[in-house]
Amino acid sequence: VVFPTLWVESFKEEERGLRKNLDFLEGRKAEAHIWTLAYRKAITKLYNRKVRPHHVQ
After folding, report:
1. How far apart are CA 30 and CA 36, in angstroms?
2. Tens digit of pLDDT for each residue in 22-50?
3. Secondary structure class of 3 (helix, strand, coil)
4. What is the DSSP letter of 27?
5. Cα(43)–Cα(24) distance, rounded to whole angstroms?
6. CA dist list (Å): 25 to 1, 19, 34
7. Environment class of residue 27 by beta-carbon count within 10 Å: exposed (0-12), middle (13-18) or buried (19+)?
8. Closest CA to 21 of 29, 33, 32
9. What pTM was estimated for this model as a whole?
10. In this predicted structure, what is the pLDDT of residue 4?
11. CB 3.0 to 4.6 Å from 8: which of 4, 43, 52, 53, for a disulfide?
């Protein structure tokens, strides 16, 4: 029978915490991506509103 040391137990606990942080960061990354897409759409809309079309013959 092998008993885990205190260091091994604390490492496992820390690894679980890091995995939770990683999951949290993935969610934040997705939110930031959605925000960026909405921002880009709004800027494009503003730009296109001010641009005058040129007709090439």
Report:
1. 10
2. 888 999 999 999 999 999 999 999 999 99
3. coil
4. H
5. 29
6. 38, 10, 14
7. exposed
8. 29
9. 0.57
10. 72
11. 4
Mean pLDDT calculated for residue range 10-15 = 80
Q: Which residue has the tokens 């013959």?
A: 57
Amino acid, single-letter form, for residue 7: W
Q: What is the C-alpha to C-alpha distance for residues 10 and 14, in angstroms, rounded to an integer?
A: 6
Q: How far apart are CA 57 and CA 38, in angstroms?
A: 35
Amino acid type, 16: R
Answer whether residue 9 shows pLDDT above 90: no
Say which residues have a Cβ less than 8 Å from residue 4's Cβ, sequence separation at least 6.
Answer: 12
Residues 6+ apart with CB under 8 A from 22: none
Tokens linked to 27: 């969610």
Q: Which residues fall within 8 angstroms of residue 47, CB to CB, at 6 or more apart?
A: none
